[in-house]
Specification:
With 350 residues, the chain is an alpha+beta fold. The termini are far apart. Strands 1, 2, 3, 4, 5, 6, 7, 8, 9 and 10 form a ten-stranded antiparallel beta sheet that branches. Strands 12-11-13-14-15 form a five-stranded parallel beta sheet, with helices on both faces. It has two domains: 2-124, Sandwich (Jelly Rolls); 131-348, Rossmann fold, CATH 3.40.50. It has eight helices and 15 strands. The chain is 23% helix and 28% strand. It has helices spanning 138-141, 165-172, 203-206, 212-217, 245-248, 252-272, 290-302, 330-348, and strands at residues 2-3, 11-13, 17-19, 22-25, 31-47, 59-64, 72-75, 80-100, 109-116, 123-124, 131-136, 176-181, 235-239, 277-282, 308-312.
Length: 350
């Protein structure tokens, strides 16, 4: 049986582009999940990995049934290739999840076709009654969490969003989740080592779209606006400001500018998600801008925005290991997830 990654047949996780009957998984931890009865399943996958150097290829992982560690994890090296997702010895009902591990900034993944030996079309996996959304940067992507600081240079094979704080928190809470995350991104400045802000690619200009970067790469005339009715999160976690601090550098005027634009961004997120509770976080790679985040949250609450909260992550510790380019290790991500899980339980009464 051959079928596409249409939502009639598969559960789709994350913001994904559906274009010419191809499902594009680009954001970290975006995925499809389906249930079929048979002995084998394959997928025809497309990638633009050829546009990227070897260390920045697209990676995916395959989970079977209730696995927490993937059965397979591999890079996509050919523009189009058929990959075996699952092969069993007996005919049985099997659930397959195909997850994008590398982040949207690098190689893209398109699911052109899925092939099984079943005589029936598959069905989508069940959805959860709980829904989360994470808006973040490289930390949310799991950047370098399997690398070692001062030893490794970042490669996408060291990037594991499944074991980063966001996906860990969602699994702790048995919730579905979307990750809108991009390494180096900020509110008023993405990461910079200059005195001028880096405004080439900022989250406020990216958030309203399904996958603006992919649409621009595909040279579409207008990027697709995300349908916010398609996925309505109960709680939205914003973890931004780490990269802005590379520009603000403690300067009062720059911090004020950050606070003003942070306020505007949270208001925009609220306008798109009127029923969600919003939790503003920061701190794993430095808490320089957290006081400003807290001030803006307090201002919003005074203005009547009651369902908004703030929480600081503890700064990572060297004894817990440091990942590539001074990013949090998997141990740190586990600690972040534990703290965030507890906070969300309190906020949501879950």
């Amino acid at each position: 049986m051959k079928f596409t990654a249409d939502e009639k047949y598969v559960k789709v996780m994350g913001r994904t582009l559906w274009y010419d009957n191809i499902r594009y998984l680009n954001y970290s931890c975006s995925a499809i999940e389906f249930i079929f009865t048979g002995t084998c399943a394959e997928a025809v996958l497309w990638t633009d990995s050829g546009n990227y150097e070897d260390k920045l290829k697209a990676w995916v992982a395959v989970f079977i049934d209730d696995e927490d560690i993937p059965s397979k994890r591999f890079p996509l090296l050919q523009e189009e290739e058929t990959y075996m997702l699952y092969k069993g010895s007996t005919v049985k009902e099997t659930r397959i999840r195909l997850v994008k591990y590398s982040e949207a900034a690098f190689g893209r993944v398109g699911i052109k076709e899925i092939i099984t030996d079943s005589e029936e079309l598959p069905k989508p996996a069940d959805t959860s009654e709980r829904r989360l959304e994470f808006i973040g940067d490289s930390i949310t992507c799991g950047y370098g969490n399997e690398g070692v600081w001062n030893t490794d240079i970042f490669h996408t094979d060291q990037e594991n969003p499944w074991d980063a704080y966001a996906a860990l928190t969602a699994r702790n809470l048995e919730a579905d989740y979307h990750l809108i995350s991009w390494s180096g991104i900020g509110i008023i400045s993405s990461w910079t080592d200059q005195e001028e802000p880096n405004t080439d690619w900022l989250m406020p200009g990216m958030y309203p779209y399904t996958d603006k970067a992919a649409d621009l790469a595909f040279k579409k005339q207008e990027p697709e606006i995300w349908n916010f009715k398609k996925y309505t999160p109960h709680c939205i976690i914003i973890n931004l400001g780490t990269n802005d601090s590379s520009y603000t550098k403690g300067a009062a005027k720059r911090i004020e500018d950050f606070g003003r634009e942070y306020y505007r961004f949270v208001k925009e997120v609220r306008s798109y998600n009127p029923g969600a509770r919003i939790l503003c976080t920061l701190g794993a790679m430095g808490q320089e801008l957290y006081p400003e985040v807290e001030r803006q949250v307090e201002l919003l609450r005074r203005e009547g925005e009651e369902e908004i909260y703030s929480m600081a992550f503890e700064v990572q510790k060297e004894e817990d290991g440091i990942g590539s380019d001074w990013h949090p290790s998997k141990t740190t991500h586990k600690k972040m997830a534990d703290k965030l899980t507890k906070e969300i339980r309190n906020i949501m009464n879950w």
